[in-house]
Amino acid sequence: MASYQETLTSDESINELIAETTGINHLEVIENVIDSLEQDDSAMVSHTPEGGYLWKFKYGSVEVFVQLNGTTDEDTITVWSTVLNLPAKDEPRLLRYLLELNCSSTFEARFGIIENRVVVISTRTLAELSPGEVSRLITIVATIADNNDEALQTEFGAT
């Protein structure tokens, strides 16, 4: 049985990739992903004067935020969710544990600290960002946060 494969030159391949990614409406993709994940009609969106967007929705026991600071290739999508308020019990052990998780089980996301809160966060530029990657970023942050928040609060939460 003969197999025929289309061979593209490197310029054709690059142009094909550009065509696939330039037509993406990131706002629509983000809203579709949030619609598939959010619970109890909890999704809300606000627009910033600078042309950005901020979504918030409930996923399991956490609130997830998705921020788009614009729609050009240089702009970014940031997804985060708070899992623990600080100060916490035994912070050195907590920080070591979070670093170990960052190394072993957070994929494109990571644990970090923002304004005395432990968060799960991921950031990426919009350049060549596919709908699948948008879905993956939001899903990873939401899932890791929901899978870890209660255990972290039980183990390290302030009394």
Explain what the structure shows:
This protein is α+β, with helices and mostly antiparallel strands. It has one domain: 2-Layer Sandwich (Yope Regulator, Chain: A), CATH 3.30.1460.10. Helices cover 41% and strands 26% of the residues. It contains 4 helices and 6 strands, in the order ααββββαββα. The chain has helices at residues 10-22, 26-37, 91-104, 131-156; strands spanning 44-47, 53-59, 62-68, 76-85, 110-114, 117-125. The protein has a 6-stranded antiparallel sheet. α2 packs across α4. It is globular. The model is unreliable at 3-7 (pLDDT under 50). It comes from Nostoc punctiforme (strain ATCC 29133 / PCC 73102).
Summarize, please.
It comes from Nostoc punctiforme (strain ATCC 29133 / PCC 73102). With 159 residues, this protein is an alpha+beta fold. 41% of the residues lie in helices and 26% in strands.
List the helices and strands and how they pair.
Blueprint: H1 10-22, H2 26-37, E1 44-47, E2 53-59, E3 62-68, E4 76-85, H3 91-104, E5 110-114, E6 117-125, H4 131-156
Antiparallel strand pairs: 1-2, 2-3, 3-4, 4-6, 5-6
Helix pairs in contact: 2-4
Mean of all residue-level pLDDT scores? 87
Whole-Å distance between the termini? 70 Å
Strand order within the widest beta sheet? 1-2-3-4-6-5
Total strands: the figure is 6
Note the run of SSEs as H and E: HHEEEEHEEH
Q: Compute the gyration radius: what is it? A: 19 Å
Structural class of the helices, strands and pairings? alpha+beta
Helix content: 40-55%
Task: Determine the number of helices (DSSP H or I, runs of at least 4 residues).
Answer: 4
Strand content: 25-35%
Query: What is the assembly state of the chains in this entry?
Result: single chain
Domains, number: 1
Low-confidence region ranges: 3-7
Largest sheet: 6 strands, antiparallel
Shape: globular
Under CATH at level 1, the class stands as Alpha Beta
**CATH architecture type:** 2-Layer Sandwich
